[in-house]
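hey so u asked for the seq, here:
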Amino acid sequence: MALSIVGTDKDGRPIQAIDIASAVLNARILTFGAALQDLRMAGVAHPLVLGLSDPGDYLANPSYLGAIVGRVANRIAMGRAIIGGHTYELDKNEEGRTTLHGGKNGTSHRNWTVVEHDTSSVELRDVLPDGHMGFPGRLTVDTTYRIVDDAISVAIIAQCDRATFCSFAPHFYFNLDGRADIADHRLQIEADHFIPVDDRLWPISGPEPVDGTPFDFRIAKPVPPSIDHHLCLSPEVTELRPIAILQASKLRLDLHSTEPGLQIYGGAGLAIEGLGLNGRDYGSNSGIALEPHRWIDAPNWPWRRQAELRPGERYEARHTFRFETA
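ran it, structure tokens below
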């Protein structure tokens, strides 16, 4: 077990790194953004995720590498949410018209606190004050990373003292073969619907069948380079169940989650020069982000109840990423 100070945030608070491991996997977690900075597997020469070598670079991190994003993951069109008959104007951090991943100072860009840790797990906490990024309510969120054998799990639990919206997501980018891009990766997803979006990536309708579209991953296939879309797994939160398989070369990732939706981003916009793990460049399509969470833009659509969080209720999302070699 190791916990060390690896930098400071803009307020001079220490950024800590926590190493957790099993005999198969070892990971480094940062308090800033509650980010998964690095993940390695015994017998595999390269990292399994994209990460920034210098913890100080997470203060910017425009691609959200490894972070826990929220209080609402993905996009809220027009940066506006109606709760209890009141319209809340939110931080519009994407082109001045969209709230992306909770706003410019969402949980991905805040320094969390270590609650407890041991050799195989760490619990981190952030407290978002009432009015933070325009959202109502003082929200307390806990994220627990745990490694058991060949799997790393992420549990996110939150409560709020006022009615609000809440939908966190782990924003991990995976590259399973260590190559410059993910061209040789194959993806399979247990989703028969997707949400169509416009050129702003705002939904234009409710879920549509994936049949005959590029978003039918029910049989494994290569990842389209330009994909940045939301697939619908179920109408509600469920028990932990398998939702996706990513495979490349001799390595396979099985993703289990409780969440009703999965955002897939093929990393087309990545342009990180020399700052990656081992000094690597992360160019276009160098990793795929698999982001399980509540359906996109929930405050503006009939599925808003997925992301509503009321006083006395408990938000809970659980994910497991299991790796195996062929």
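The two ends are 30 Å apart (CA to CA). The chain has one domain: 2-325.
lmk if thats what u needed
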